């Protein structure tokens, strides 16, 4: 099925009012298990860089929930949110402006072309790489866009069934995904080849996470996609 149209409909439904969009972000935080892991790593990074005014790139910002989290938790950070979807960028920009958030700027851009050499201390990319065929080029661009000693934090489906594909020739639950997911050796090699010196990867979901994902995301999204 096509996941993006369903996501955009939900965004529009909850995005009509400031309060409902904040509630929507909170629901995503609760329902998406990956958010717990991402937030934990961001808090660790924030504690290690306490008091510093950092530049951050939200690469593939989507509905803007991670930029929202970063902007509120780390108000001294200068955050750039970029996404290839012009409508998503416009909606997020309007919501952040009306909410009085001033430390986030929004740009429409293709990560396969986006390069700002030596600019960012931290690059965040959540549920993006599974949509991009030219992943090696994107990794290279992100590496070039980071300052020396910067950090890249990625969350993406794995080869453990991240897009609910388990057999050869079986169609992905989410048709926009260009790959089912990475295995650890594969993504580590691609990142090192792109120029990253220290790479650490880990599986975070496990069986409980897989069950939670189906209950909280796959089945509801499949049901909504019928309308």
DSSP helix fraction: 40-55%
In spatial order, strands of the major sheet run 3-2-1-4-5
**CA(first)-CA(last) distance:** 12 Å
Poorly predicted tracts of residues: 165-171
Using only CA atoms, what is the Rg?
17 Å
- The total beta strand count reads 5
**In what range is the share of β-strand residues?**
5-15%
- Element string (H = helix, E = strand): HHHEHEHEEHEHH
Mind describing the biggest β-sheet?
5 strands, parallel
Tell me the structural class: alpha/beta
- Gross morphology: globular
Count of separate DSSP helical elements: 8
> If you average the pLDDT, what whole number results?
84
Describe the structure.
The chain has 227 residues and is α/β, with parallel strands linked by helices. It is 46% helix and 15% strand. It has helices spanning 3-14, 18-31, 33-48, 65-73, 86-98, 135-145, 184-194, 206-224, and strands at residues 55-59, 78-83, 104-108, 120-126, 146-155. Strands 3-2-1-4-5 form a 5-stranded parallel beta sheet. Helix 6 packs across helix 7. The two termini are 12 Å apart. Residues 165-171 have low confidence and may be disordered.
């Amino acid at each position: 099925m096509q996941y993006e149209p369903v996501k955009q409909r939900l965004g529009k439904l909850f995005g009509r009012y400031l309060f409902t969009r904040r509630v929507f972000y909170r629901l995503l935080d609760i329902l998406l298990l990956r958010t717990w892991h991402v937030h934990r790593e961001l808090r660790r990074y924030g504690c290690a860089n306490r008091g510093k005014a950092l530049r951050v790139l939200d690469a593939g910002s989507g509905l803007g929930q991670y930029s929202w989290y970063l902007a509120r938790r780390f108000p001294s950070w200068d955050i750039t949110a970029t996404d290839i979807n012009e409508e998503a960028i416009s909606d997020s920009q309007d919501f952040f402006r009306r909410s009085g958030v001033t430390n986030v700027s929004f740009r429409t851009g293709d990560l396969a072309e986006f390069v700002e050499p030596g600019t960012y201390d931290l690059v965040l990319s959540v549920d993006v790489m599974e949509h991009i065929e030219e992943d090696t080029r994107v990794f290279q661009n992100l590496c070039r866009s980071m300052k020396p000693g910067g950090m890249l934090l990625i969350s993406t489906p794995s080869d453990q069934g991240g897009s609910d594909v388990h057999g050869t020739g079986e169609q992905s639950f989410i048709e926009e995904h260009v790959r089912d997911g990475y295995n650890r050796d594969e993504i580590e090699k691609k990142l090192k080849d792109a120029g990253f010196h220290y790479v650490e990867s880990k599986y975070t979901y496990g069986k409980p996470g897989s069950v939670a994902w189906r209950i909280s995301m796959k089945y509801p999204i499949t049901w909504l996609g019928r309308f």
